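re: the backbone from monday

yeah here it is again, tokenized this time
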């Protein structure tokens, strides 16, 4: 474990808190409670972006809590709240319940405390740029509408039919719960001095979506057992190439073929989303912003490799990878460092490949990643691998220099 970096982290947190208003400090307290993994990279961002991303994350987390962690609320009530959640930015009351009643329905204590304190988040938002507020509002509207579409799906793990049937449906779901955030982040980054306006164009948005889907699908793979214990099953029943049916996604215990399913899932996510993620990260210029975007992606690759051929995914032994213990915090500083880190984990994957795994997977991925790092990707290939492409566009704003 890198204790020097941990001490530096403590100094950084104190420095950030010294710059914040009382509302800002409360928001970052909430951020550290609901997302220990993202909070420390968000704190590394330039102040003009840091506070906006903090507000964006907290509001998205609040919305997700209503959709996913308030089972006592009827589906139609949650759907209406999700669709109207963006209106809370103007302090408009919900038609059905008060904010306190909604918060009290949320199971997780940290999420509940955040929802009870939405007024503080709104107050902190008054300190961020107006264009960032609009990006957040549009993101909440798109995300909330998409979440409402999936509320009536049967995600129950004891059901004969899971709510996600195909990888295309999983892409759609992940777009709403994560891809919208990726697009919003790209748009906000594009307004920062020294960053490319390309991040704010429809042409490049699929790269951000790929990056977000890499993170979200990693969580879905890693959290299989946790989701099952909550009565949720997000693994798709069929694979795109063969449409052959797999059932482990709706089972609560380890069964023959389950490990094969897991391995195919990991291989698919790496092959589909990792190269576009590298292309996306290669567009970011600022070292601080790059580190914030790249470290979670490096963690995702490490987590996927750790999950590969690992029965612990299906048992009561959570799979966790620490950025401090692996030392990647100090290594992932630029695109070269990110690709080097990816290559290190791909070598670990080589040692774990199952007999039925793709023999050329590691060499193929390393070659593609290095080519993308040097040459980028052709715009015409950005959409490849995204099985569902009918997402709502969030528009383009002018760059704020």
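seq for it, each position gets an aa:
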């Amino acid at each position: 474990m890198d204790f020097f970096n941990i001490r530096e982290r403590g100094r950084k947190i104190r420095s950030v808190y010294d710059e914040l208003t009382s509302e800002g400090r409360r928001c970052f307290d909430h951020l550290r409670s609901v997302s220990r993994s993202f909070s420390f990279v968000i704190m590394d961002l330039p102040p003009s972006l840091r506070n906006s991303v903090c507000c964006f994350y907290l509001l998205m987390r609040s919305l997700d809590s209503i959709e996913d962690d308030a089972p006592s609320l009827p589906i139609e009530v949650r759907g209406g709240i999700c669709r109207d959640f963006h209106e809370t930015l103007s302090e408009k009351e919900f038609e059905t319940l008060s904010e306190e009643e909604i918060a009290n329905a949320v199971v997780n204590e940290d999420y509940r405390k955040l929802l009870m304190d939405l007024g503080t988040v709104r107050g902190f938002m008054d300190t961020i740029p107006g264009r960032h507020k609009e990006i957040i509002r549009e993101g909440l509207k798109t995300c909330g509408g998409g979440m409402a579409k999936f509320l009536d799906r049967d995600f129950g793990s004891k059901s004969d039919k899971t709510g996600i049937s195909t990888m295309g449906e999983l892409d759609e779901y992940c777009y709403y719960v994560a891809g919208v955030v990726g697009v919003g982040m790209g748009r906000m980054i594009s307004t920062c001095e020294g960053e490319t306006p390309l991040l704010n164009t429809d042409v490049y948005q699929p790269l951000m979506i790929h990056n977000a889907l890499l993170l979200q699908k990693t969580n879905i793979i890693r959290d299989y057992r946790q989701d099952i214990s909550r009565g949720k099953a997000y693994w798709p029943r069929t694979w795109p190439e063969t449409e052959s049916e797999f059932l482990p996604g709706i089972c609560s215990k380890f069964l023959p073929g389950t490990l094969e399913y897991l391995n195919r899932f990991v291989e698919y996510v790496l092959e589909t989303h990792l190269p576009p993620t590298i292309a996306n990260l290669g567009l970011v210029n600022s070292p601080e912003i790059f580190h914030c975007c790249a470290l979670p992606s490096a963690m995702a690759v490490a987590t996927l490799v750790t999950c590969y051929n690992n029965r612990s995914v299906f048992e009561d032994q959570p799979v966790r990878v620490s950025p401090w213990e692996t030392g990647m915090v100090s290594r992932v500083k630029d695109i070269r460092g990110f690709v080097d880190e990816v290559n290190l984990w791909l070598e670990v994957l080589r040692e774990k490949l199952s007999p039925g795994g793709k023999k050329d997977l590691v060499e193929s991925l390393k070659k593609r990643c290095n080519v993308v790092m040097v040459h980028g990707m052709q715009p015409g290939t950005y959409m490849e691998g995204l099985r569902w492409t009918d997402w709502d566009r969030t528009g383009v704003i002018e760059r704020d220099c």
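Residues 19-151 form a domain with the Farnesyl Diphosphate Synthase fold (CATH 1.10.600.10). Residues 391-401 have pLDDT under 50 and may be disordered.
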